[in-house]
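Structure tokens please, single chain.
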Amino acid sequence: MKVRFLIPLLLLLFLLLSCDKNSLNANKLPNNWEYMVGSEKDTIFSLDKTQFTELESLSHLENLLPGKEGYIWVRNSFTIPKNLVSTNIAILLGRITMADKTYLNNEFIGSGGEFPPEFFSNWNEFRFFPLPKSAINPGKTNELLIKIFIAGEGSITGELLLDSREKIEKIYKNSEFLNSNINIIISSILIVMSAYYFFMFFMRKKDKENLYFAILSISTSIYLTNFFISKIPGFESWQPSYISFQKVIFISVFISTYAFTFYIREFLNIEKINWQRNIILGVTIIPIVIYLFPRNYIVLRTITNYFQVLLLMPLSLASYYIIKSIIRKNRDTRILLVGISPFIITVLFDLITHQLLKMNSVIYITGFGMPIFLISNLFILSGRFVNYHTEVESLNRDLELKVEIRTRDLDIANKELESTLIKLEEKNKIAKKDMDMAETIQKNLFPKNSPQTDEWDSSFIFKPMSGVSGDLYDFYMENSRLLGVILLDVSGHGIASGLLTMIANTICRRIFFKTLSKPLSLTVDKINDDLIYEINNVDNYLTGIFLRFNGDYVEYVNAGHGDLLHKSGKTGKVTIINNSTQDFKGWFLGLEDMRQPYKALKFKVQKDDVLFLYTDGLNESKNSAGLDFGVEGVIEALSNSPNGSANEILNYIVDELYKFTGSNELNDDLTAIIVKKSGV
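Here you go.
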């Protein structure tokens, strides 16, 4: 590509941008505009419409207000063309600055931006309003009223059209595409490019042109949001204040200019001169700092008008770098000029038309120069690739030696790893042997068979999840009589929990028989005291159920455990054993901070009544969908169990569990006990 090819390219670009939006021959609104100065509290019903005066121009409406801030009402009267009376009609009012509300024949038809106190301007969005039939006076004069908030700027720019909705909507979409939608595409591309070049810089920090190009891309992307911010999804929910947003936009311009200047310097490999760098930093930082202070948009805009002159300094320095590179016959200069010329031209075009000539009806085209500038960066990548390729060739010459060294190092590392694995395997064997021994000792401490007496039929299941279990169960017998049953669950898993079950088993058995003549609540108090003494410095605690039998009566203490279930032998109904007036459950066992006296509940059982105790390994077992078997599942299984022996009842409940989980694998220790009253 040669530089002379840019001329027809730019001519084509400007031709597209200057295409007549009225090529569809839409009807224009008559130029009979009037205005009156309003106030914040004005409504269409409070206006004195005799106060309207002729308005010569819809531009620079701020000059009609003292202090260039406030509200203005503008009015236009028109009749609906006969060929449109029976069609859907829409109106296109161009772009309105700063914010506006529009009414047709006193009926609200649309708005743009937000009035104070939540002031925000959608100044770059075309106002397209379909006209409701209820608001139209066919064959009569129609009155269009627009209330405009003005803050240092105020205008209605672009062609004002009235025609069929289909035609106006097509014109509107074409205008929006050129004015804002295309900037959304460009801004998105710039964000991707910025991320890519930031990545390139962090991978190779000596190539600082990648850093400056990334900053230029992201700051330009931020600047372009000025043309489409209201189109971002969810904008209304996070809408910033307009003055804060404009500060960001103005700051992005100075950051872009700063990054642009130093990108040129780095790309052309111009020597760094400190005083030049300090001047550009000052020209960039000082305006940015000053921008943080204004709280009034008019002040902010006035400051910006003065500060724009400062942009000429870094742009002049960038031009100096390019000229200097041309004199040195740097071959990269042509590539840079091809890519950057359209961008410079479009920036100058926007500055001249909008800032100097105040031609507000012309759309901003800076974004159109950026894609060509991005293409030029491909040449940068190409040049860098050649350099990297040269480096790779150099590395390949030494690759064989490096591979040999790395292979030797790898062999040494593998031998060390092999030695480590052997040691780990030996330690695992020792650990497994210790676990097996602990499991054997624990099983020998617990009852292997459930007792059967004239009064009670019992059955149990004890399934550790792995190795030793944190569950503890025991049956207390004396002279062929079943005196009591306990079921405890130690918090946690593994050897530590298993060792605690052994300690607790000894304590519970000793104290149970020692305190047979005392209430069961005092027995549990004493057990808790001894447990606290023995495991005071251990983080684990225990929950449990304690039962003592005396004929038809059962004495029951619950230490923070799941509920004891009772199934009536007569009715088959399953209930939870509890106090009818208040929960009698006590705290966990083995915790000094929770030491409190335990309460006992005494109740009577009938022949064939069933008591069911279980640990949470039963109700917390999950199926393939991640759902718990739950207390409801336990109660349902017990309710549906056969009226048979304790063993038959327990087998039925376990079968229901495995039907639910789909496997015999457990995610916790499982212990369950059935005690059935078999005699009177």
